[in-house]
Amino acid sequence: MGDIFGIQKKKIRKQRSEPTTSIPQIIAGKSLAEMQNTFGLTRHGFEESQFDLSEIRRAADTDSYIRRAFDIHVETSLRQGYSIKSRNKDAASYVRNRLEHMAILSGRPLDSLLEGIFNDLVSYSNVFIYLIRDNKSLGEPIKLKSGKRLKPIATMKLLDPTSIKIHRSKNGKVLKYRQQMSNVGGAYVDFAPEDIIHIYHNRKDNHAFGTPYVAPVIADVKLLRRLEQND
Description:
- The chain is built from 8 helices and 8 strands, in the order αααααααββββββββα.
- By secondary structure, the protein is of the alpha+beta class.
- The protein has one domain.
- The strands form 3 sheets. The protein has a 3-stranded antiparallel β-sheet with strand order 4-1-8. The protein has a 3-stranded antiparallel β-sheet with strand order 5-6-7, with no helix packed on it.
- Strand 2 (142-143) and strand 3 (149-150) form a beta hairpin.
- Helix 4 crosses helix 5 (64-78) and helix 5 packs across helix 7.
- It is globular and about 65 Å long.
- Residues 1-21 and 35-42 have low confidence and may be disordered.
């Protein structure tokens, strides 16, 4: 019996000595990219918004309640106007002059550009501003930390958020933006990250796009319209 019990004790000790690996031990000391590789959370190609932004645009174009809600938000945001201020008066004057020059080159007044920015932000929670660069601009070239030199910004253009896709690395760094020009021909234009300003609201962890605040009510509005048609 003693030998039997002795063998049993040895087996128990051996089982207890075998290490077990828990999830916290797996991810301890690992970077986000390493964790994504460990759990298979890799990114392939370009990402679209997790919500159908085109459906939101259609809703705003066809539903008076949604359109009015968007308009009220935009009007309220711009009601008090804007000003460019700085303790350095020369700097503030320079910014004003540069913005005025950009407006002339683009043919779009600054007020109209700001209205467009707020409209996209309210409607889609995402704004994409394309920085068009030209050495003939009044600005000066910019040198990045990487050593890359950028032409000065000549003007700015808003891109349709419903047409944008984002390519990111495994650790979430934006590598490229893509604008899908046509769903039929598949034509597209790619932009470098330094040429795009992406303004977003309510962006969830690990997501590339902001979350439109109207997204949860789209289905309810569509149901309401169907019920009204059936009455």
